[in-house]
From TrEMBL:
Name of the protein: Flagellar associated protein
Pfam families: IQUB
UniProt entry tagged with the keyword Glycoprotein: no
Keywords of this entry: Cell projection, Cilium, Flagellum
Species, as recorded: Ectocarpus siliculosus
Domain of life: Eukaryota
Domain IQ motif and ubiquitin-like stretches: 242-376
Length: 393
C-alpha cells in the first residue's frame, strides 16, 4: 500500500544551474469526501473523479428572502407583434364593405367517422394487404416448384439421352469389334459367338431333320463353320499386321521425341540431341519408304537417300539393303509394275526397320531393345546371335 512520504527532493533550474531542494509535505489526516468515481470490486480501492483532486469548490450563496414574495410569484405578460409570411383573416360580408371572393374555394367536410368505424376500415384494408401478399407468396412458391420440376424433367431427359447415346456407342463399338476385330478379346467374342451359333444350328437340325437329310444339313453346317473360321483367321492376320505397324510407328515416334529437361526456374524445356535428330531422320526415311509411289523419279530419290544413309556402316545388314536398293532401281528403270515390286519393297522396309532398331546405327533404339539374359555382355559370340547386330570388321 502506498504511503505518502513527509519530505521529497525536487531539482529546480535556477539561473542556469540545477539545484536540489527539499520540500516538506502536509499529509491529510481526515476522510476524503466521495464526489463520484468507482470502487474496484476485487481490491476495494476507491477511484475519485479528477475534480476531487483540486480541493473543495466554493459555491455562491443564494439569497432566498424574496422567493415567496408577491413580486416573485406574479406572472409578467408582454405583448409583441409580428408579421407572418402568409396573411390570413376572417371577415364576414357587410353591406358597407366589398369583399373580393374571386380566389375563394369551397371546402366541404367529409363524413364523420367514429373510432370504431376507423378501426374497422383499417382492419379491412390490412386483411386486403395480407390477402394480396399471401397470393404473391403462393404464386412464387408454385413457380419455384414448377422450375424445380422442369429442371428435374430436363435432367431426366438428359440422362435418358446420355444413356441412349451410350447404348448406341456401345452397340456401334460391338459391331465394329465384330467387323474389324483388333484385340484378343474381340477375337474371343467372335469364337464364342461362332460356337454358340454352331450349337444352336446343330440342335435345330437334329430336332427337325432325320436320316440322310440330317447328314446333309450337318455337312453344310460344317462347311459354313469352316468358311467363318477362315474369315476370322484372315481378320486375325490383318489385325496382327495393323497392330505391328502401329507399334512400329509408335516406337519410331518415341525414339525421335525431344528430351524434356526441367530448368532451375521450374520450366520444362524440350531439347533435341544428335541422337534424337538421327532417330527423326530414320523415321522420315521409313515413312518415305511406306508412302505410295507418285513417280519413278521420286522413288529413285528415296532409294538413293536410303543407300547413302546405310552406306555409312559396313556390315552384312547394310550390304543387303544396298543390294536390294540397287535391284529395285534396276527394275524401275526397266519399267516393271508396282505389283511385281511389292514383295521387294516389303523386304527393303523390313531390313531398314531392323537397321533403325539396332543401337549401333540408332543409339536411341537402346531404350527399346530387349536383350536376352545370356547376351548381357556383348561379346563377339553374343553379337552374332543378336538380330540385326553384325560385327563390323
Amino acid at each position: 500500500m502506498y504511503r505518502m512520504p513527509e519530505e521529497i527532493a525536487v531539482k529546480v533550474l535556477v539561473e542556469g544551474e540545477v539545484k536540489e531542494m527539499s520540500i516538506k509535505l502536509e499529509r491529510f489526516e481526515g476522510t476524503k469526501v466521495f464526489q463520484g468515481g468507482y470502487r474496484h470490486r476485487g481490491t476495494g480501492r476507491l477511484f475519485h473523479h479528477a475534480s476531487t483532486q483540486f480541493g473543495q469548490r466554493e459555491r455562491p450563496v443564494k439569497n432566498t428572502d424574496h422567493l415567496r414574495t408577491r413580486d416573485t410569484q406574479t406572472c409578467k405578460i408582454k405583448t409583441t407583434t409580428m408579421q407572418t409570411t402568409n396573411e390570413c383573416g376572417t371577415q364576414m360580408a357587410r353591406k358597407d364593405m366589398h369583399l373580393d371572393d374571386g380566389c375563394d374555394t369551397f371546402k366541404i367536410a367529409g363524413e364523420y367517422r367514429t373510432a370504431g368505424e376507423y378501426w374497422r376500415v383499417r382492419e379491412r384494408k390490412t386483411v386486403t394487404i395480407q390477402r394480396f401478399w399471401r397470393g404473391f407468396s403462393a404464386r412464387s412458391r408454385v413457380w419455384c416448384r414448377r422450375e424445380e420440376k422442369w429442371a428435374l424433367e430436363e435432367k431426366e431427359m438428359e440422362e435418358v439421352a446420355e444413356e441412349e447415346g451410350k447404348r448406341t456407342q456401345e452397340k456401334q463399338r460391338e459391331m465394329q469389334r465384330r467387323m474389324n476385330p483388333s484385340t484378343v478379346q474381340d477375337f474371343e467374342v467372335l469364337y464364342n459367338e461362332l460356337d454358340q451359333w454352331r450349337e444352336a444350328e446343330t440342335k435345330s437340325i437334329k430336332q427337325a431333320e432325320v436320316g440322310e437329310r440330317r447328314k446333309l444339313a450337318l455337312r453344310e453346317l460344317l462347311h459354313k463353320e469352316t468358311r467363318l473360321l477362315q474369315t476370322i483367321d484372315r481378320l486375325k492376320i490383318t489385325a496382327a499386321h495393323e497392330g505391328k505397324e502401329r507399334r512400329t510407328r509408335r516406337m519410331l515416334e518415341l525414339m525421335s521425341a525431344s528430351k524434356q529437361w526441367e530448368m532451375g526456374d521450374g520450366e520444362v524445356s524440350e531439347i533435341h540431341t544428335p541422337w534424337t535428330n538421327r532417330a527423326r531422320d530414320l523415321q522420315d526415311m521409313y515413312e518415305a519408304l511406306e508412302a505410295p509411289l507418285l513417280s519413278v523419279e521420286e522413288r529413285l530419290d528415296v532409294l538413293l537417300h536410303l543407300k547413302w544413309t546405310v552406306s555409312e556402316f559396313d556390315c552384312r545388314l547394310t550390304r543387303d539393303i544396298a543390294e536390294l536398293v540397287d535391284r529395285e532401281a534396276d527394275l524401275l528403270s526397266r519399267g516393271r509394275g508396282e505389283a511385281s515390286l511389292r514383295p521387294l519393297r516389303q523386304r527393303i522396309r523390313n531390313l531398314f526397320l531392323r537397321f533403325a532398331e539396332t543401337p549401333d546405327f540408332n543409339p536411341e533404339a537402346s531404350r527399346f531393345i530387349r536383350v536376352p539374359p545370356k547376351y548381357g555382355k556383348l561379346t563377339d559370340e553374343g553379337m552374332v546371335g543378336l538380330t540385326g547386330v553384325v560385327s563390323c570388321k
